[in-house]
Write a structure and sequence with these properties.
The protein is an alpha/beta fold and 233 residues long. It has two domains: 77 residues, no CATH class; 120 residues, no CATH class. The chain has a five-stranded mixed sheet. It has a two-stranded parallel sheet with strand order 1-2. Helix 6 packs antiparallel against helix 7. The chain is globular and about 50 Å long. The protein starts with a helix and ends in an 11-residue tail after the last helix.
């Protein structure tokens, strides 16, 4: 990525983190150091970045053993959540919970563009592991915030590269996935049944591993506490 930026001839000044999941910012410091850039994020995102740094040994390093460099949290907020790029304003918009807490997006009004991170997915299975206890409803509200910005184009955090960046389509498909998750969670009693039902509903989406991780986490939340029985009425 660094070589791609250098080859573009552009002057990299800022790196924006949409949310705290480590796969979206762990190497931002290396890029910032190479180009003299500043990592920026919302206050809520920075809080989540610190949380992900703390759980790194138990989670991220197990997913990517030996692949993640030292990654201290260096992100800072910007006054008024506004950046200026070549005379154009870029707005950091906090949207709350998406596939994790403390999410924000970057709105570029003059381009009709939203850099949406994981609020909107594009042809990839959505990460549902943190969507219990009202999380999917909160995610829908975040989607609505993005939709109300009236973007024409969406840059998503996870995308099938064969698809375009049409905002209306990506927003509608993200909502449909959340609705299907609610429907199929109610129908199935175990994570495997839910997993296969979602694969059948969305056969073209990439990264089923994210779906499986979410299924396991959601059914763990649904399971009764040890020593307790579940009655039927």
């Amino acid at each position: 990525m660094g070589d791609w930026v250098a080859a573009s001839g552009k002057n990299l000044t800022h790196i924006f983190a949409t949310h705290g999941h480590g796969d979206h910012w762990f190497t931002a410091g290396l890029m910032a150091e190479r180009f003299g850039a500043t990592v920026v994020a919302s206050e809520g995102t920075i809080k989540e970045m610190h949380r992900n740094a703390a759980i790194r040994p138990q989670f991220w390093d197990k997913l990517f053993p030996g692949q993640i460099p030292d990654a201290p949290v260096t992100a800072v907020t910007v006054p008024g959540d506004r950046l200026t790029l070549e005379g154009h304003e870029l707005h950091i918009v906090e949207v709350g919970h998406s596939d994790t807490d403390g999410t924000s997006v970057l709105h570029v009004p003059d381009l009709g563009l939203v850099v949406a991170g994981d609020v909107i997915y594009n042809g990839v299975h959505q990460y549902l592991a943190e969507s219990a206890d009202g999380g999917r409803d909160a995610w829908r509200k975040a989607v609505t915030v993005v939709e109300d910005l009236r973007p024409r184009h969406i840059v998503t955090g996870h995308k099938n590269k064969e698809l375009d960046d049409d905002a209306a389509r990506a927003i509608a498909e993200t909502r449909a996935y959340l609705d299907a998750a609610d429907e199929l969670l109610a129908r199935h009693d175990d994570p495997l049944g839910f997993f296969h039902a979602m694969l059948e509903r969305f056969p073209e989406r990439l990264n089923p591993g994210a779906l499986w991780g979410g299924a396991v986490a959601l059914y763990k939340e649904k399971a009764p506490a040890p020593g307790r029985s579940v009655g039927r009425r």
